[in-house]
Amino acid sequence: MMPPVRLVVLASLLAAGLAAAAPVVQVPEGGRPVEVLAQGVVCGPVRNGWSLGPDGRSVHPPARPDDNARTQDLKVADTPAQCATSERIVTVIATGPLPRIDFSGTSFYPDEGRLELRGVGLLNVGVAWSGKPRGEPERPAMEGQDVCLSPSKPRGLADCAVPVPQGLPTDTSLYWIPPYGRVGPDVKTYDALGNLVDPESLRIRPGRTILTEPLVLSNGIDVSKGPGSVPVSHSEAIATADCGIARCEPAEGFISVRNVPGVDATVTLRARLVPRVYFSRADVLDQVITTTLSVLACPLTAVEGSVLRGAENSALVVRLDPVCAHDPRTLVWTVNGLRVRVERVVKLAEGTYVLLRTGGTSDQQVTITALTSRQDGTVVASETAKTLPLPVPRASLELPGLGSIDFIPTNRPAQVSMASNAGLGRFVLEPLPGAYSVTTRESVTLIQGEAAPGAFVALRFGYRLPTLPAELATTDLVLVDERFQRVVREASVPARIENLVEFVCADKDGKDQVLEPSRPHRIPYEMRNTCRVIVHRQRLKPEDGNQEVLLRISVTKPDGSVRGESGVEQRMFLRPQGEQRDIPVPGNMGQYDRITVQVSHVADESRYALSTTDRTGLPSAQWTAIVTGGLFRLYTTAAIPAGLYRATEPTGQLAINFGVVSRLALLNNEGQERLLGIEAGLMGLGLVPQSGDIQFPPTLAVVLGLGLRVPIGPGAAVGAQAWLAYEFRGDIRRRTGGDPTLDPIVPSSKWSFIFGPSISVGNVGFNL
């Protein structure tokens, strides 16, 4: 990312490239006043530290302007009276101090794309360039600007590298721009003393222009159909060219070669560069470049995308022009001087394709040469081609419907998807005997492991070029292994629990019945001990892999408490084609006990191949069954009515009561008693005396009636009762307060009707 400072400075430089109607006057900050226009007046206003001279035509720049106050557009007119209607604008800019550039110490590197300035005051100095690439008439001129942001020293003589586009010609027009200033035909630049700067003095003439890329772009000359030519990268930098007995003439983008004495000759080319242009060879700068050129009789082309670097035992493909009459198999082929073998030859109308098997190269370019023989050494064809880095294959494995996996399955095939930028080529998965096999089904590539589980294998791919003729398009140019290894193991796919596990109980006739999951079932009480869980390991298919499941069996009583002796929890590891296993429900169950069987897969991503997109959960199943029982329950409970109301005369409140009550209640299908039941028992009434006129003595009573109970926990309930009671008590007395006219004995019957809320604890009884 470009630094923010560079963006700000470049924004000011880009304004110079725009076609502006207003002229520009720029002067260093703190400099002397300069004339904005030869005749007329500046209408103003003048702001941001600028000041207007007495003559009305000159301005004085600010001494230390802010970056946002350097540029100002001033309205000008021929007379002050015309200021209101004038539309003329003059732009004034307060630049930074003008630099002093040492042109002799400045170096231009067109191939590397940089200009190394040397001078004083280089910070924020801009550089503008304009150059036409040689030999490319269709390309427009390369123009642009950049700025020096990081001089080697803040003060004094310093160096600064300014980036420029690669590929500029050596005679590119280079100009320096004052800091924060502009360049262009409508721009006038003044120095700090107010003197006009000659635009030609802004031109940069580097002391050295250094070429770093090869100047001669071929090492052969094709003279089979007339005068040959040698392409060069910078024809404008060549002053003279000498080819010995042959005739060489520099031209636009190439050197023309004529009068070559025979196709079996070699030509030594000596190119002398123009003054101040050098070719860098290691640490040596040369002005004379010497190259030996082979005379080519057969045009040779390296097929694009087939010349790779960084690949051992790789192949490349070249195409000989149809004019070449040589049989490629009889020629001696070399790549960078090393002999290679011809593996395949395909002749077509457009030429002859030759597949050459090499040992690989790490060079940026290769020279492919065909000779008649090692002894004769006659060059029949030659080509220099740039090498492409070997693409990196990236493959992903996927189990259809289950998502991506990071291993090679041994029990089922996985789909292979390629995700690599192979350029013109493509990668094809190759089988590796003993490790994995590869099949193709409806244009889908499938892989299945063969190695022992636990082994690690890197996938092997063949690099192919579909643009080659059909006979070569299916040939692997190079074999490439993945940069990492994958483990080989089973792919465990979670199987449906209903297919593996059954819950079986006998019916009333003693015959086994398979209970369906997720549905309530009823088990005859006499068959309660026939229930069992059957694990069918023989139904597990090899392609499903090993399974790990968790079995839970729990039995709860009608009151919700757990029957601990009947609980089972087992973690089972199931292998395909195993034997059947029966697991009975332990313990002696009672009426209306609820049996719950839960079976689920153990959530282990290291074992199961789980989908990365569809996380709906692992398969699981649950069975529920209730042991049948009687229609009624008769039981005894301790009742504690806090307060009972005696509805029979004399009426009153009986506080703190306690007794034992037997209750007969109707049961529902799940063994839970209905709210209303018949109750009878012994009850202690009025155990705490109450304040009031009527004094009920504590008494023991036989009660019979109806009770409403709501369970609040195991063996506990709250309710309300309405009882008919016979009381074993003495007389009920009245407080007379010493009044002799009042009888202290209250007439009352031993039979009474009482009702009120109570809390009951305990449930000892049996079902009927």
Automatic annotation (TrEMBL):
> Signal peptide span per the entry?
1-21
The UniProt regions of compositional bias labelled Basic and acidic residues, in chain numbering, are 63-74
Region of interest (Disordered), ranges: 51-74
Has keyword Signal? yes
> What are the protein's UniProt keywords?
Signal
Write the protein's name.
Lipoprotein
Q: Which organism is it from?
A: Myxococcus xanthus (strain DK1622)
